[in-house]
């Protein structure tokens, strides 16, 4: 599949939305005067933010499989499984070193290796999805949708006292929900649907916009769904919203096609760097910015500082990669493969 600007833009938009969310974690929600906007944006994007990332990844299944199963598997090991292992080591190691009390290495590693890592879970799920899709792409959509929604709704959470417990013990529910988006991305290419032409159809674009408006309204005005319910967050509550979230994808594709931001395109092109490395800034800022300040203006400064650094660190790493440095952190492939959704 040839690189298309709208694909990079859509990926960049989704990564930027993830960074935007994580910056609120860096300051423990103390975002100063940005509170209302931050809360609303993160609420609205919650059902689709991660789904768009997996939708883009699914667009590259067909091209990969055309090279044969052996080449397909080798490619995914080099570009997904390898950086997963590397960054599990980075984040688990950092957690152990910076911990204020002794932690058992295995108790830190196991949640990461089983997909419960606070940032590496994406690569874990993505690698599993690329394996699952070989069989799933032969199945009808109604069956995939039914199975995934059932998994999202019914799978039990990892017990909190288990050695596999992590920050998100419902990550298997989350993966079940997100696999539908990945399957949809593959289906678009497999059925030779031309997204730029499809979203120009009035009924598609208006229907998708209506679905997203309804989705956004539910997230904003139903108390049990939004960020205010984050303390009791479970991916099971997103399950009924999946049809609306899926129907919203054409709208975001349309927006990506109308986007001419070099920043968004750059983030999308270098998505694996921005996704994996920005969280180092989030964790560092979280150590010092957790307490609210006496002034909202100071909170503003902390929030903006976190956001700026979460973009600047990955950008700096990208510059080093352009000179042949640090490539080993992200891929075994040469030349460097610079996106989460590798072909």
How are the elements arranged and paired?
Elements: H1 5-26, H2 35-45, H3 49-58, H4 61-65, H5 69-98, H6 105-116, H7 121-136, H8 141-154, H9 171-190, H10 195-198, H11 202-221, H12 242-247, H13 249-257, H14 262-269, H15 271-288, H16 296-322
Helix pairs in contact: 1-3, 1-13, 1-14, 1-15, 1-16, 2-11, 3-9, 5-6, 5-7, 6-7, 7-9, 8-9, 11-13, 15-16
GO molecular function, one term: O-acetyltransferase activity
GO biological process, one term: enterobacterial common antigen biosynthetic process
Pfam family, one: Acyl_transf_3
Short précis:
Helix content is 68%, strand content 0%. By secondary structure, it is mostly helical.
**What is the typical, i.e. mean, pLDDT?**
91
The major beta sheet can be summarized as: none
Strand content: under 5%
**Strand count:** 0
Shape label: globular
Q: How many separate structural domains?
A: 1
Helix and strand composition category: mainly alpha
Distance between the termini: 7 Å
Which segments are poorly predicted (pLDDT under 50) over 5 or more consecutive residues?
A: none
The oligomeric status of these chains comes to single chain
Query: Any idea what the radius of gyration is?
Result: 20 Å
What fraction, in percent, of the residue positions are helical?
55-70%
User: Helices and strands, in N-to-C order?
Assistant: HHHHHHHHHHHHHHHH
